[in-house]
Amino acid sequence: MPITDESSVVLDAVTKTFGSVTAVDGLSLRINRGEVVALLGPNGAGKTSTVDMILGLSTPTTGNVSVYGMAPRKAVSLGAVSAVMQTGGLLKDYTVAETVQLTASLFTPSRPVSEVLERAGITDIADRRVGKCSGGEQQRLRFALALLPDPDLLILDEPTTGMDVEGRREFWTAIREDAKRGRTVIFATHYLEEADAYADRIVFVRRGSIVADGTAAEIKSLASGRTLRATVSDADQPTIAALPGVDSIDARGDSLIIHGKDVDDAARYLLNNTDAHDLEITSHNLEDAFVALTADQATPQVQNPTEHSRVGATA
Ligand SMILES: Nc1ncnc2c1ncn2[C@@H]1O[C@H](COP(=O)(O)OP(=O)(O)OP(=O)(O)O)[C@@H](O)[C@H]1O
């Protein structure tokens, strides 16, 4: 269907409660066309609840969700949105091609079977029975099925759970290749490396709210800081602790571990004034950011803006 709205998905102050549990807590988010967005967060953060509302499988308790300016269910019924779910929906005795053929007969219009098999990278296993396919192959089959209506928006909820490394890599290669055509992709994951490798934008969700929104590099920079390790026997720790940029010092035998936003001054001090050697400076990675963002105490450097268009991480 021709889509004119620049935004694929808009969530406006969306809350979803289940009894006394608040799964989604006043979440606002705008996803533009062509973005590949990871909803990243720990277990129970509210990712699936959010995805379900975008798919029209459930409705917000308060707030509003629109997909291409429509109610989600309408967008799904028009073929503008497809989903690749984790489990279910496949009959083990059919072959891969028969499964796609059968599903294609439900859609009018539908992309050709051979085309979606090709795009999902499963042409070579078209004659294999579904029951004999690996987890990764079955997920690529689900991906092929999701492509039949040629959706503008593809939604994947933890699509690679239980898959081995190779299966995951092949699955994501197929998704990424397809996304190059301009399809909007939203996927929920708690695999940091998946979000890092495959998303243009990471929306970090914690306890039903967005705590960070930006590129992987921007999210990583939220765990901003460096660690300086050195072997040193004569360092004056109070002097180092007072240097600009230094947050904390850990002494372990002859090793000194200095943490801080910027440890260049500390390195300079050590080299000029002590017998320090074997200096090593490391920066934090996405995993550090994940730990910082999911820590129980709210991290002071992370804001929680109420409106999330492509704002970048808010450090
Ligand atoms: N149908 C439901 N009834 C009751 N509570 C629910 C229901 N669905 C979700 N919840 C609760 O809402 C919270 C958010 O769950 P949700 O599945 O959205 O999180 P998630 O980020 O997808 O987690 P995971 O990574 O473990 O799948 C959790 O506390 C969960 O137990």
UniProtKB/TrEMBL annotation:
Domain ABC transporter: 9-232
GO CC term (a single one): plasma membrane
Topology with respect to the bilayer: Peripheral membrane protein
InterPro entries: AAA+_ATPase (IPR003593), ABC_transporter-like_ATP-bd (IPR003439), ABC_transporter-like_CS (IPR017871), ABC_transporter_ATP-binding (IPR050763), P-loop_NTPase (IPR027417)
GO biological process, one term: response to antibiotic
Keyword annotations: Antibiotic resistance, ATP-binding, Nucleotide-binding, Transport
Protein location: Cell membrane
Main location: membrane
Record-linked SUPFAM superfamilies: P-loop containing nucleoside triphosphate hydrolases (SSF52540)
Pfam family, one: ABC_tran
Family matches, as Gene3D superfamilies: P-loop containing nucleotide triphosphate hydrolases (3.40.50.300)
GO molecular function: ATP binding; ATP hydrolysis activity
Protein name per the record: ABC-2 type transport system ATP-binding protein
